[in-house]
Write a structure and sequence with these properties.
The complex is a heterodimer of chains A (226) and B (421). Chain A has 226 residues and is an alpha/beta fold. Chain A folds into two domains: 119 residues, Response regulator (Rossmann fold), CATH 3.40.50.2300; 97 residues, Arc Repressor Mutant, subunit A. Chain A contains eight helices and 14 strands. The longest helix of chain A has 16 residues. Chain A is globular and about 55 Å long. Chain B has 421 residues and is of the alpha+beta class. In chain B, the strands form three sheets. Chain B has a five-stranded mixed β-sheet. The radius of gyration of chain B is 48 Å and the shape is rod-shaped. Chain B starts with a helix and ends with a strand. Classes of the chains: A alpha/beta (226), B alpha+beta (421). Chains A and B meet through helix 1, helix 7 and helix 8 of A and helix 3, helix 4, helix 5 and helix 6 of B.
Chain lengths: 226, 421
């Protein structure tokens, strides 16, 4: 999978690049408007991660340019402006997703994965993670052939963890993923503990070996044998 | 009071006073003049009679004279009568069967060695009638003048103030949030109004520039702070994945992540406050109070699962308010969150909404800060880590924006927050 990351903060650019290279993406980068314009005109990408505020011009203009060239690359906007108007403007110009800074890399990863799956799925629309099969269109999951009876939150949690398998996901990232902006201002991770506990139990009941590991109290990790 | 009405009222109060004073002066001078005329007339009559007596040089036949004209009397002994002064008197006319008012003038004179006094009369009934007629006409003229002045004044000031009212209308519909400019006339034909329009245009232009830069500042501040936060957060995420991660480092990373989250929330809250203050939330909707409260509560139920305090609800499903939906959700979220966070273990929350009223009660320890500081920014009753100290300040700001009244009472270990919409 080929990924283009357009972000003017070099440090953040490096974090994102490091993260996605780990996921065996081929990463290309651009740190200003002109560089971005050159790359989107010359090459095709599966997904473009696009910052809005760029030196030399707005990321939204790049997006417009891309769509004017009839290119269908997936675009996730990452913006420091968490305003509804910007979100709507971005999505109307043909962005596929919008993520406000500061975000968790695991969240960005889940969004990029979901986008690529939507755009390039060959009709099956499934996530296969070891012996767990998640069917996105029917929102169901199976272990081997045993149906898992998950609540909405547990299902979302499983998809999120599957997208970030073999990586440490912080409790905070999980809370924000499940609750969005509502996660603000809470010191409590009650719901994360509860959902993880329930999910683990349901996986175990279906015969799945203990695959969700706690990592020193900072987060969790989904470990799956190939 | 309207300018026109005020103007008319002043005219109606002061003009009649001035006109009454004028009438008094007029009456005074007119009376003086009439007395003067009487005096001249009586003197002339007196002189004519005396001239006639002198021509004939004979004894005066003493008779009563002619009624209403004159009388001559011989004076035997000295009289205390005052002479040469006009006096009022009245004579009886049997034909009219009533007393008629007269003016009289008496003079002492000597004729052929004898003392006489002559009194001449002049009827004052005509002059009284004349006075009355003159005064009636005068009164009529005054009333006509009074109303003419008022009407002319109204008409003239309507014309004069027209451009003022135009400016006022334009100002009252002017909205700094809309791109339309004020567009006042440069040339109204009246120097003062030209100056007013010019000053207003300059004022509004300056405000618009300040407003734009303020808006820009809010956005820039958000951008500038969120970007380094995004960097810290991404680095912490990457650190978590280091293969040589041990528990000690993990705790450090956890603390960094928490602090970053806290800073990010603080930043978001400050930006929200600034946006409310700058009235960025313009679109309004008709909202069902109970539905909105239910919607907010569902998030907390999702978030806290079984850990929520016991919540009882009394929601009236027929109350509606018109406001920005995300602001009202923020208001309820902040109040409910406040009631959850500051609740005592095994406490309860009671939510009531009826008519234009929202009440939330919760158990909890007494405030450590004075109650009047509760809605101030960064006034925290506790030092809980993820409490920004801005939740109630934001709630207050939203209430201020929509002129809602928010109040707090603590009684019998129960905190009550109330919002009147």
């Amino acid at each position: 999978m080929k990924l283009l990351i357009i972000e003017d903060e070099l440090s953040l650019l490096k974090s994102i690049t490091d993260f996605f290279q780990h996921e065996s993406f081929i990463c290309d980068t651009a740190s200003n408007f002109d560089e971005g314009l050159d790359k989107i005109s010359l090459y095709n990408y599966d997904c473009i991660i696009l910052d809005i505020a760029l030196p030399g011009g707005s990321g939204l203009k790049l997006l417009q340019n891309l769509r004017n060239q009839k290119k269908q690359d997936g675009v996730v906007i990452i913006s420091a402006k968490n305003s509804l108007e910007d979100k709507i403007a971005g999505l109307e110009l043909g962005a596929d997703d919008y993520l406000a800074k500061p975000f968790h890399l695991s969240e960005l990863n889940a969004r990029v994965n979901a986008l690529i799956r939507r755009k390039y799925s060959d009709g099956t629309n499934q996530i296969i993670c070891g012996n767990i099969t998640i069917d996105i269109s029917s929102k169901t999951a199976k272990f081997n052939n045993n149906q898992l009876h998950l609540t909405k939150n547990e299902y979302q949690l499983l998809v999120f963890m599957a997208a970030n398998k073999h990586r440490v996901i912080s409790k905070r990232a999980i809370t924000e993923h499940l609750l969005g902006d509502e996660a603000d201002n809470f010191d409590s991770f009650y719901s994360v503990y509860a959902h993880i506990k329930n999910l683990k139990k349901k996986l175990k009941d279906a015969g799945c070996p203990d695959c969700i590991k706690a990592v020193y109290g900072i987060g969790y990790k989904l470990e799956m044998d190939k | 009071m309207e300018l026109q009405k005020k103007n008319t009222r002043f005219l109606l109060i002061y003009l009649p006073v001035i006109l009454i004073i004028c009438s008094i002066i007029f009456y005074f001078f007119l009376s003086l003049q009439i007395n003067h005329v009487h005096n001249e007339f009586l003197l002339l009559k007196q002189e004519n009679i005396l001239n006639l007596l002198n021509e004939h040089k004979r004894e005066i036949e003493l008779h009563s004279g002619a009624k209403g004209e004159y009388t001559i009397r011989e004076i035997k002994e000295p009289l205390s009568n005052k002479y040469n002064i006009i006096k009022d008197t009245s004579l009886f006319y049997s034909s009219e069967n009533r007393l008629m008012p007269f003016k009289m003038l008496t003079k002492k004179f000597e004729h052929l060695g004898k003392d006489y006094e002559i009194t001449t009369y002049s009827s004052s009934i005509e002059t009284t009638h004349l006075m009355l007629a003159v005064f009636s006409i005068n009164g009529l003229i005054y009333i006509i003048i009074l109303f003419s002045i008022i009407i002319i004044n109204r008409k003239v000031s309507e014309g004069l103030w027209r451009s003022f009212y135009e400016t006022l209308d334009k100002l009252s519909i002017y909205d700094i949030y809309k791109p339309l400019s004020l567009n006042l006339k440069n040339e109204t034909g009246i120097t003062e109004f030209n100056k007013l329009n010019k000053a207003l245009t300059q004022l509004v232009d300056r405000d618009r520039v300040a407003f734009q830069s303020q808006k820009q500042f809010v956005e820039n501040a958000s951008h500038e702070i969120q970007t380094p936060l995004a960097i810290i957060r991404s680095k912490a995420d990457l650190l978590m994945e280091q293969p040589d991660l041990n528990e000690k480092t993990a705790v450090l990373i956890n603390d960094i992540t928490d602090a970053t989250t806290r800073l990010s929330n603080l930043n978001k809250s400050l930006i929200l406050l600034a946006k409310i203050e700058n009235n960025h939330f313009l679109d309004k909707k008709n909202l069902n109070l109970s539905k909105t409260i239910q919607y907010c509560l569902s998030h907390f139920e999702k978030l806290f699962d079984d850990e929520l305090p016991q919540i009882t609800k009394e929601l009236d499903t027929t109350s509606f308010i018109t406001a920005n939906s995300s602001l009202i959700e923020t208001l309820f979220n902040n109040l409910i969150r406040n009631a959850i966070i500051h609740n005592s273990p095994s406490g309860y929350i009671k939510i009531v909404s009826k008519d234009k009223l929202f009440i939330i009660e919760n158990t909890g320890p007494e405030l450590t800060i004075p109650a009047e500081l509760l809605f101030e920014r960064f006034r925290k009753g506790s030092n809980k880590a993820n409490n920004t100290g801005l939740g109630l300040a934001i709630a207050k700001q939203i209430c201020t924006l929509y002129n809602y009244k928010i109040s707090y009472v603590y009684k019998d270990s129960i905190h009550t927050l109330q919002v009147n919409f």
